[in-house]
Amino acid sequence: MLRALIFNITLAGFGLAIPTISPSYNSFTQIDLFDDITGATGVAVAPVGSNSIYKTLKFNGFSLVATLGPSTNNLPNVIAQSDPNYIAFSALDAESVLQGTPAITATYTDSQIPFFDLKSFFYACALGSQESIVGVPVSCNITVTGYSPAPANKQVGKATFVFNTNGGVSVDMQKATLPQGFTGLGKAVFSVQNGGAVTTGLTAGLVDNVENTVYISVKPWG
């Protein structure tokens, strides 16, 4: 009995008596291209995937748009970073109106993703309405605000990216790289601002090639 007592005390002294099991996660990084789902050319009326869920995240308030591709007839358009699709949002966009604030979120029914990191995306702006993306590029600002998972929902990051057409008729999207603070997110909220002659309500934010890292909870052994 004495030997057993001494042995247990010795293990405790080395921190070996009671192991602590912390939550662990598997993670993987992906780039959401939106090109393997079907959209209507130039029309933003369909959600992004089934129930707005694409791969492992929900794209709430975004619509899927099939583009015209690179302009060959000097038609005004925004060239998708990866053909043929990008996603769009605006104050008058059909899915933005139906679903509410445009946001990439890990929270939805049966989600296995407790949180995610938002790394980068490509973006642009065009004239838009509830029925369609007209395709005429316009300068704008796109703001992304990151929040921690529920129930805290605490703002942890905010960044604004400027898009300038420089007078171009057919323009490429620009890359936005998120700064520190956009890790461990429950959601990332998107908004678009236009300080020019075109009102913000008629300006559609366009997004493509969203790079993110998602985390999946792993059950402790034993």
Please provide a written account of the structure.
Helices cover 8% and strands 44% of the residues. The chain has two helices and 16 strands. The chain has helices spanning 2-13, 94-99, and strands at 24-32, 46-47, 53-54, 57-60, 63-66, 77-79, 85-89, 103-105, 115-128, 133-137, 140-147, 155-163, 170-172, 174-177, 187-193, 203-218. The strands form three sheets. Strands 1, 2, 5, 7, 9, 10, 14 and 16 form an eight-stranded antiparallel sheet that branches. The chain has a six-stranded antiparallel sheet with strand order 3-4-8-15-11-12. It has a two-stranded parallel ribbon with strand order 6-13. Strand 11 and strand 12 (155-163) form a beta hairpin. It is globular and about 60 Å long. Residues 1-21 have low confidence and may be disordered.
